[in-house]
Amino acid sequence: MATKFEDGKPIASQNTQESEVLCLQRGDHPGMSLMLVPQDGNNYLTWSMAVRLVLGAKLKLGFIDGKCERPTANSDNFEQWQRVEYMVVSWLLNSIRKDIAEAFIYTTSARDKWLELEARFGESNAPLLYQIQREISALLKVICQ
Q1: With contact defined as beta carbons under 8 Å apart, do 3 and 84 qualify?
Q2: 103 three-state secondary structure
Q3: pTM for this predicted structure
Q4: Nearest Cα to Cα of residue 38 among 93, 103, 110
Q5: Which of 18, 19, 39, 52 has its CA 20 to 30 A from that of 140?
Q6: C-alpha closest to that of 47 among 100, 3, 87
């Protein structure tokens, strides 16, 4: 269920965790990486599962799965929501190999970045990657002979 806001505040009837979505912890900072091994274009499935686990533990998964909706710009919580959104975007960019991250710097939201990463590196590209790797291997065999 998406986090809903009334007068810029999370609706009180929703569970306590949803009000904590907009809180950052003392150790949270923009330079932090979510992963020890960055997304390198070949490890998307493992990387994406690990990122989801980390963001879930931090109660920030809603920023990439679309469940934490952007409040209206004039709501009381907009600035706090935007602050957390920027933090999640920073974490995602820091968890991607630098040359790959450059291609995603201009997507506007954490959700958009997540969907773009999935489109480029998700399961649907696995057969294409396999085919390209086989062709490279075949070419290397020819060159080495």
Answers
A1: no
A2: helix
A3: 0.72
A4: 93
A5: 39
A6: 100
The average confidence (pLDDT) of the chain is: 85
**Residue 10 β-bridge partners:** 5
Question: How many other C-beta atoms can be found within 10 angstroms of the C-beta atom of residue 95?
Answer: 20
User: Domain tally for the chain?
Assistant: 1
Phi, psi for residue 3 in degrees, rounded to 5: -70, 125
Mapped onto helix, strand or coil, the DSSP state of residue 117 is helix
pLDDT at residue 13 in the model:
46
Q: Two tokens at 121?
A: 């590196």
- Per-residue pLDDT reduced to its tens digit, 77-110: 999 999 999 999 999 999 999 999 998 888 889 9
Asked if 116 and 104 touch (Cβ cutoff 8 Å), the reply is yes
What is the rounded CA–CA span in Å between residue 94 and residue 37? Answer: 11
Domain that holds residue 85: 5-144
| 104, two tokens | 């995603």
Q: Where are the alpha helices (DSSP H) in the chain?
A: 16-20, 44-57, 62-65, 78-94, 98-101, 110-121, 126-144
Instruction: Give the separation between CA 101 and CA 94, rounded to whole angstroms.
Output: 8
Judge whether residue 128 has pLDDT over 50. Answer: yes
